Every structure is written in C-alpha cells, then in structure tokens.
Amino acid sequence: MSVRVRVPALVLAVLAMTSLAAPAFADAKSEARSQVEFGINVAQRGLWHEAIYRWEKAVELDPTYAAAFNNLAVAYEHEGQLAKARKAYEKALEIDPNNTQIRQNYELFREINDRTSAKDPS
Amino acid sequence: MTARARKTRHSLVAAVCSSACAALMIACGTSYYEIPIETPIQPKMDVTPFQRVLVAGFVAGGSEDVDANQETVRLLRSQLRTKSQLRVIDADLLPLMDVAAEQGGQGPAVDDRPASDNGGVRIAPQAQGVALPKQIKEEKDLEPYERVFANTAYWKRIGEEFQNPLIVTGTVLFTPHSRSGYVQRDVEEYDSFGRRRVSPVRTYMERKGFILRPKFIFIDGRTGATMYSESYREEILYNSQQNTPALSSYFELMDRLVPNFLSALSSQKIKGTRVLLK
Fold this sequence. Notes:
The complex is a heterodimer of chains A (122) and B (278).
Chain A: H1 2-44, H2 48-61, H3 66-78, H4 82-95, H5 100-116
Helix pairs in contact in A: 1-2, 1-3, 2-3, 3-4, 4-5
Chain B: H1 3-28, E1 32-41, E2 52-62, H2 68-83, E3 87-88, H3 96-103, H4 139-142, H5 147-150, H6 152-161, E4 166-190, E5 196-220, E6 226-231, E7 234-239, H7 246-265, E8 268-277
Parallel strand pairs in B: 2-3, 2-4
Antiparallel strand pairs in B: 1-8, 4-5, 5-6, 5-7
C-alpha cells in the first residue's frame, strides 16, 4: 500500500522538479543570448571592455554557447590578451568543431600569435 | 489532374517555399558580423632601459648591385624614427668587416691604426689567424665574421661612446637566385557562348630573383652583451624574361621583414578582421 502511494509521489516530485528546472535553463540560455547580442552591439561601437564583460557573463550563464566563446576570444585578441584568446577559441571549437567561421578566426589568430611569439600581458 | 495543373501546383509550392525561406531569413536577421580588430603585440625585448638606438652597421654580402649594409642601415633607421619611441643616433657605419679582420689578426695591427677608423675604439686582437673570406658570397662566408658580435668588450666600448644605447647590428646576405620548375597559374578562357572561365594550368618556367637572409642582433650598449637575435629568409622569383632591378627586389623583400624587426623592440598593432557570432 505504502509503495503504491510512494511511486506516484516520486513521479510527481520528479515532474515538478523538471518542470521548474526547464524554464530556468531556458531562461539562462535566452539571457546568455541577449548578453551576446548586447556585446556585439557595444563591440561595434568600440566598447570592447563592456563587450568582454557581457560575453564573460554569457559563457557563465551558458557554458555550451560556442558563439559567446568565439566573441570573447575576438575581444581578448583585440585587447592583446593572447593566452586568454587562445583558450576561448579552443573552447569554442571544442563545443562546435565544425563551425567554419570560428575556425577561420582561430587560424587568423594563430597566424599572428605564432609569428610574433610576443610577451602576453594576460 | 492534368499535367498542366500539376505543373502550376508545383510552381506554387516552390514559390511558397522560397518566400517562406526569405521571410525566415529576414526574421532571424544576420547571425554573424564582421568586425575590424587591432591586435597589440608586445615587444619581444624589454627596451625600457634605453632612450636611444644605434643601428651600427652590418656584415653584408651577396649581390654587388646592392650595398646591403648601407641600404639596411638606412632603411632600419628610417623605420625606427617613425615607428618606435627610441631616438635614432645618426652616426657613420662601423666598418665591421675590418673590425672582424683586426680581431682575427688579419688587418693592420690594432694599436697602429687610428681609433677613428673603427668607431673610435681600439680592439683587443682575438682568435689570431682565423681566415676571413675577402668576399661574402654565401652563408658559410659569414660564419667567421660572427665572432665580432660576441666581442662584448668591443660593443661595450661602442656603447660608452654613444652613451649606452641599444645597438642593432648583424649580417645581411642578398644573393641572386634562379629556379626552374613547374608553376601553376590561372588561365582565362572563353567558351562558345562568351562565358569567362579561369582554369589552373601547370607550365614549366625558368625563374630568377633574389634571396634575402638577414640576421638582426640587438646588443645592450651598457654591457656589450647580445640581448636578442633573430634570423629571417625571404625570397622572390620573377619570370626569367622580366628584368627587375636588384634594389627594388631588395626593398620588396625588406618590406616583408620590417614588421618583424620592429616587433622585437616596439609594440605593434596588427590590423585584421574577425567574425562575431550570435
């Protein structure tokens, strides 16, 4: 009798948890997306520090967001933080290995980085 | 359903699909943005202790059509004047080949020679009797001259004379070069409808040009010690019928190397374009 009562209660609890977690997860994704869009907007105006702040927030909210890592890498590159840029590009490619645009960015970055082997402030 | 009705229905479906796709693309907006960036590159050396730079001269050889020593000094000084924070010292070129000969014991006795002939510095003879080639034609001819750059006492004295600047010196070899082989080039063709087509064609060609092999050595004028050095190799080849003056080839090759040279001692910004994604 008690087992009969417990099973539906467990199912209900699981359903309740998933129904609460799914919107939270969707919210995080959509918040990450709006942070990325805001970052693009400010980067186009030359406000790279603000863009970095936004994109760092985006990857925190959604650590599987390849575009956010890509944008962050571009911003780090622009700021001369080459070690951080490399890490972010590699993370973006790890998430989305077939993305040709990320790969192209990374190739261009490597061309500069390998050629100069400069000291890195990051 | 007749064939005509079927055809009309197909074209209607195609039109609906294409307009739906277009509407979707408009609704989604662009998902990537090209953006110009400028990557700052830190200098490879710490030149903060120096306010001045002396491009002292080079041990040079190869083609007789270009005075690689003089041209390299002139070019580097002008680049440093405009693209670095260091003040460039205008001074006569050091006769490094004579200096090397004296250090090797081939030249006139060091103490008999006026000090002004070698940058006002008397040199202690070293490595007596080592043969130095009179003409530098290839890379191995330069090797015996390398010891002049390791003579810290000599460079320290040069440094003292010019108030401890950063000293730039090294070797430059600019040699004629020719190579034959198959080269791929694009050939333009027009078909019977007048449509243009470009296709790659492999042709055997005899080509000639030049190779530039500079080695830049950066010496601390306070101690005479080498701080950093780097070597490069660039080549250019032309069709054998083309008659390009040696001096313009030299400048074309140096143009490729100058950003690398400058990045050793001053921060540079490398311009490029990247793609931001949504």
